[in-house]
Amino acid sequence: MPASHSAKPAKTAFWFNDGKSPNVADSLDKNPEITLHRLRFDGPEADNWGAMSASQAYCICSTRQEVPEQYQARAPLLARCPDLLVVSTSGAGYDTVDVPACTAAGVLVVNQSGGNADAVAEHTVGMMLSLTKNIPQTDDSLRSGSGIKREQFKGWNAKGRTVGIVGLGEVGSRVARICGLGLQMRVIACDPYLTAEQCQARGATKVDFDTLLKEARFVTTHCPYDKDTHHLINARALAAMQPGAIVINAARGGIVYEVALAAALKSGHISGAGIDTWVDEPPPKDHPLLAMKNLIATNHTAGITHDSRNNMANWNADQVAQILRGERPPRLINPDAWSSFCQRFERVFGFQPKA
Known about the structure:
seven-stranded parallel sheet; five-stranded parallel sheet; 12 strands; alpha/beta
């Protein structure tokens, strides 16, 4: 039965406490129109599902290792949450969300793309410069008292060299700006969703993937992870790079084939790598990449700054509030769901969303 206007159904959302601060719950608590259920993954299942099945919004963590399978936004969960209208991720990624299943169910999926883009771009360039200047190796040498002469740590200038960016979105375009304008590097990019003119406007020359591999001294990935980008940087791609190339992955684990990268680093064909995102997070202590001295390893921390945490918490809350008011959100992942979402929204709240 459609809800009547006079009934004014409660607007409800749920969120599992992930220990991050600030978070979307802190921001939603400031909105008197929305009742937020703060849940725990280890809480009583009956209580969790009771709150979830009666809610219209799910604020979900983006990192798949941090969300138990039963609480990931996939078909089984959607079937148990008949009034769910939106799944809003905590970051740019949506590994914990089955987007096609949400689209089929008329559930909107939104992310916070751009909220941590400056942080990830700065982290990426920091890795690039640290590797080309051999900063980690010099630091290790001094701390261990190895006595290696400083001439052995001779690096290269970034100025004038070529950086190849795979994916020229929120993060990639910022990397392009820092490298092109700040470091006076040549910037090339591969992005199937952008024209040559659009790439140029974002500070890069558009090339195909094979050309990027051949010409770039630095290859950095900033694309989504899906079936098309799974192991995109594989043994073939690494072999196609110029000797001494440096690889950075601060996008998603699985884009770089970790086994192949370890082999390329060991052989010396790839002179260095910076890996922030992993297939398993954190990676096991015996992971072959962690044995490489020419690798900088961080634990999916590129986007974690006080500034980006504030951005993502506030953006997340704002989008949820917009959607529950019947407004189209700015960072909609599955626009094909809008029509069926509108029908479901009217069933829940009794009025049509704004076009």
